[in-house]
Amino acid sequence: MHYSAAMNGPTSPPTPLQQPPALLLAAGRGERMRPLTDHTPKPLLAVRGQPLLQWHLQALQAAGVYRAVINTAWLGEQISARFSDAFAPQGAPDKREQLLISYSHEGRDFGGALETAGGIARALPLLGDVFWLAAGDVFAPDFRFEAAAAQAFAASGMLAHLWLVPNPAHHPRGDFGLSPEGLALNLPPEHPGPRHTYSTIALLRAELFAPPWCDIPPGNPRGIAAPLAPLLRRAMDNGRVSAALYTGRWTDVGTPERLAELNATAPLP
Prior knowledge:
two-stranded antiparallel sheet; alpha/beta; Spore Coat Polysaccharide Biosynthesis Protein SpsA, Chain A; globular; single chain; 8-stranded mixed β-sheet
């Protein structure tokens, strides 16, 4: 892994409260997308004429996020070769508009992906106390990584803030409830209340990846693989996870059929 600092503005780098860095999850094998992912990592599959991961990079850069970390495993060298160490709008003349990119190469370091919590724990030394999180295999062209949301979260006592979406047809039961006060709810299976699907877009605090929520050592030096959901559920049970319902366009690009459907629809306005 390597770290890069960046400038965002005419004279000085942004403070963490303006826009924290982002972690983009791009390490998965994409088994359900085979054979498309046999030779191409899923985040590089083309959606509306450009790599799926690029939609997030564009939105982050437009929102003033100055640094992103991408975790990789399966065919990860293709991702780092495609995006290198910076991303900027095509033809942008000013390097201060660039989103600088670092990588956490789980495949190179451990031979495979570390799942979501394991991968986040590994990348934490590159991220700081508060950071954006987004999965590299979701298409959410309307989502805005707003600085005001990051500032409000940083000032709160929450460990995570999740964006939930209406349940898609392939996930009708959803994941988490949402209280009127804006708390994410870990509802038991028998609970009749409505659930929404976790969009895989969130703001997280590094504290979530330390005891009592998580037992992975700092920086995950042994490469422990662990999922994120158990940590979120523990924090929800203690009232430490907020959430909001997001109703913009959103697709979990998990199958060749969903990818083909996206690419068959009209171009974005």
